[in-house]
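In this notebook, the sequence line spells out the residues, with the fold written below as integer tokens. This is how one looks.
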Amino acid sequence: MIPTPPPAAAGASPGASGRVGPAPESPASSDPAADSAVAAAEAELTRLRAEAEAAEAQLKAAQAKAALAAAEAAAAKSRAATAQPAQQPPDATTSEPADPSDAPAPGQTSVATTSGPAGAPAGLEATQEQTPQPATSQTQPATSQTQPATSQTQPATSQTEPGPLTPEEIEKITTGYTFTSTTLDLGALVNGDAVPSAQIRIPLGMMNRHGLVAGATGTGKTRTLQGLAEQLAAKGVPVFAADIKGDLSGVATPGEPSEKLLARTKGIGQDWEPEASVTEYFALGGIGKGVPVRATVSGFGPLLLSKVLGLNDTQESSLGLVFHYADANGLALVDLSDLRAVLTHLTSDEGKAELKDLGGLSAATAGVILRELITFADQGADVFFGEPEFEVTDFLRTASDGRGVISLLEVPGVIDKPALFSTFLMYLLAELFELLPEVGDPDKPKLVFFFDEAHLLFKDASKDFLAAIVQTVRLIRSKGVGVFFVTQTPKDVPSDVLAQLGSRVQHALRAFTPDDAKALKATVGTYPTSGYDLERVLQELGTGEAIVTVMSEKGAPTPVAWTRLRAPLGLMSPTPDPAIEAAVKASPLLAKYGTAIDRESAREILTAKMKAADEAAAAEEAALEKARIDAELAKQQAAIDKANAAAEKKAQQEYERLLKKTSGTTRTSSRSRAAEKSPIEQILNSKTTQTILGGVIRGMFGTGKR
């Protein structure tokens, strides 16, 4: 703080201050040194005046802060005094001073009226409107502002109401939340303290106009969701909610009373009685303790699957062509192995021609999609796809007593796959939109769908995906389905989706970073004008408190209301595992969805087709090989026959030569030999001898058949 100059410095001449030298000479003086001294003195005087004004402003600020602190203390004492019996003597600290020495100390002010956390104290405004005075006068008691301390011990009136709202504003809010139709009770208005007579409600028929429950971690979003689900079910409306951490499972178990809980509920006018709701537990793909919820790849569709796989726009359109090819060729895509089989077929030699016929699908893109699918399946995601496929109409059940069934989708085992989880919820919502008939504006919704961790759905989403979400949210209202997005800040939800939401329950927001502060300002700007300083209030909300505005029966937004929300009737902690397991075993849906089915689909069809093609190719290859072998054998046989003929001819010639050599040269001997053959000739001429000799000769010349 800049120090306050002494009184002499504020009004004395520059020369008298002792800081700028002697007093200036008269203007008649023509001495340059004197003129310079005068100028310096005037400059110093200007500086001192500026310092005095700055010190005066800071002193005023300090006095205003002191006045604010005193006013807040007085308001607290006033509230404490009104809670005591009327005959109890006032506390000594609040009694009227007996003499002027008991008045406030110099520099302090006692303020009679003050505003709450979101408003400014009246004393602060009065202090800021004072006419500036010299610093010395600022230390005197402000008698015009000082009131007797006893006035602070009187019962609070409209002038001492600690909240930011006036009685007229409270009446306006109370009227704005008074409806003629069936309602859900959200809680009581807060104006410093809870105002039980001002109940904040939402018409049951407006629950299908969608809504948002937002707030930082630990501010009470889950308990708000639980309370809404319990009241909806009690009025015969089925509810679906994803139980990310298992906290919501307590809705199936009666709550446990405590002194703190009962004091809170009494303070907001809630007649609290523990009660359990009819609950059904489900689990994605059977990972968990609930009834398995599965989907086929064909039912999931290329758009949602592209979001899960993180494909770009080109790859997304290519995946759509693959789905088209499978449908056109009767290839059922039940699980991820079916889709991998189709992609493998299209990228194989047999499927190249069919891949070319698809047009825009390249082999490289098909290979990328195939690799992403393999990685996706290796992460354990393939268990979510298969049969029997879950029928979303089973979420629209009511109990025998007319209460709606709360369907909890347990996902603690798949929290490491947030994209799949959020996209699976979008698939369920799209299926509801596809199957349910138009009902217009019913008196109560057919189903209320709580979409927890909604920011996961919109992260890295393509334009086509966002367009599909916006269309579904916009049109599913007429199917009687209400959708509530649950997330940390409204900025997590695209503006096109936020524009479709009719009710908002905004818990506390944090602003620790510049981005947080920017998001806080943007959130405040989306609310109607109110009597609150929302930028401040949203950071000061306690756990279980929220800023609420809903859609009235006329379709107009209700006034903004700082609300202390009702406590759930069920257990505000998880239901024990044995109770959950017993409920799952007793579920009539377990027999329908409990056992997985593996029927003939694209993988089996393509496998059989490829096997038949392989067998045909093998048969053709065997026939060609047999023909080649037969031709080679015929060629070899011809060569053997030719060689045998040549060998026999040569053997015959050799035989004739030997005969000539052993026969006589005279005519007589020739005749006699011709007339009578010798034993040797008889042996040589026999067929047996000729056969033996032929074999020997062929063996000698290598012409024998081996």
